[in-house]
Amino acid sequence: MSFLDCSCISHAQVRPMDIEECYEDPSQHFLSCDDSEYTLQGPAGGDDVTGLSTEPSHYQLLSELGRGFNNLSRVNMARHIPTGQLVAVKRTNLDECTEDELLQLMNEVLLSRLFRHSNLLTSRLVFSCCCQLWVLSPLMTYGSADALLRTYFPDGMRESLIAYLLYGALKALEYLHQMGYVHRGVKASHILLSGEGRVYLSGLHSVYSMMRDGKRLRAVFDMPHHSPTLLPWLSPELLRQDLHGYGLKSDIYSLGIVACELVSGRVPFQDMPPTQMLLQKLRGSHCCLLDVAPFPLGELGGLKVSRSGVDSGIGESVATGSLTHSTTAPPADRPQSPAPKNHSATLHNLVQLCLQQQPERRPSASELLSHAFFKQVKRHNRDSFLSLMYPAAPLTSPEEPPVSSPPGPSCHAPLSSADTTEAAWDFSD
User: Fold this and answer.
1) What is the CA 238 to chain-centroid distance, rounded?
2) DSSP of 131-150, one letter per residue?
3) Rounded distance, CA 296 to CA 306, Å?
4) Number of other CB atoms surrounding residue 387 within 10 Å
5) Helices (H) and strands (E) in the chain, counts
6) Angle at which helices 345-354 and 249-264 pack, to 10 degrees?
7) Residue where a domain stops, chosen among 78, 112, 138
8) What pLDDT does 395 receive?
9) Of all residues in the chain, what percent carry a pLDDT higher than 90?
C-alpha cells in the first residue's frame, strides 16, 4: 500500500477553532510596523466588500469563474445591484457537505475574521441563503497566476512579473508566520491579482495554527486534507510525516516550486506518479531552472544546464517530463515568451535557497523579502505594472445576459450549471 493511500491521511480530522474568543487581533500592530516600499499593496478601496449588503437578491450573478472545494462550491462574477460594484461570489451547498467539510468551511470563515493584511484574500462578508453559504470576495480581474500561465504565458513569465507576484505572496506569508500559522497550500492558483495591481494570497482552508496554550510549537504533525493534485508543491518534511514534523519553512519550499512554475509554465514533479514523486522528494531530489529558448520549438532543443550549479538529483526526468507537455500540437496563435530564458543569477539563487532539503537551511519569509531578486519590485508603479501584464487583459463585465437571476426563496434550487471553457480562477484544493 502506498504511503499516499494511508487511511490516516485521507481521514484526517479538521480541528475546529473558536478564534474570536481565543485570540486577539494583533494585525493592526503588524501593519503599522510595515515600512515596505511595495506601494501598490496598500489598502484597497475598490477591493473592499465589507460595506455591501447581505441580501442575496441584491446580487446579479454573471459568468462562472471556477469551481472548488471538492466541486461543492461555484464561484461567479456578480454585480451588486444597488452600487454596481463587481465582486466574486462563492456559493456552497451546505446540504451536500460532510461534517469534515462543514468544519473546514467554518475554520476558513473564522480565520477570515482574524486575518487582516493587504496581501491576504479574506472573506469578510459571509451570509447564508437557505441551504447555501455565500462568501463574497473582491473580484480579482486578472485571475490567478496559474490562469495567467495557461492563457497568456504558457512558456513562463518574465522575471520582473515573477518577482512582483512572489513578493506579494511573501508579504502574506510573512504575516501568517508572524501570527503563528502555516499556509500549507502555496501554489500559483492561490496567488491572485486584482485590476489595480494588488497581489493576494488565497487558500485559507489549508491554514493550520502552530499555537497551543499561548505558545508557538516548533513543529506540527497534521496531514493537510488535500487532494493529490497539491502534492507537487508540498515539502519533503510534510510528506514524510515522521517524528520531526514540519513547520513554517514548509511554505518556503512551496514558494520555490511556485517560482519554478512561473518560470517555465510547468509544475515540477507533476508528470510523475504520486508514489514516485514522493520517493524523489524524500531522497533529496529537487528541480532546478533550465535556461532555454522560447517555446514551442517542436523539439527539445536549446536546453542548457542551470548556471546555479545545483544537481537536481533526477537528471532530466523532471525537466523532460514537463517539457513534453508543450510539444503536443500547440495552437498556431499560442503566445510565446518575450525573450530567451536566460535566467538571472539572483533567480537561480532564490530557487536554490527555497528548495533546500533541510528546512533549517531555508530562509524565513522575512529574510527572503530582502533577497536581491526582489529589488526590482520597488521600482514599479501602476503604469509599469500594466506593462508587465501585457498581453494579459483583466476580466470585464459580460455584455450577455447573466447566467442566473437573483435567487428566490427556494432552498433546493440547484446551483448554476453554466460551463466555462477556461476558468479564470482555479479553486481546486
Assistant:
1) 18
2) TEEEEEEE--TT-BHHHHHH
3) 20
4) 10
5) 13, 11
6) 140
7) 138
8) 83
9) 40
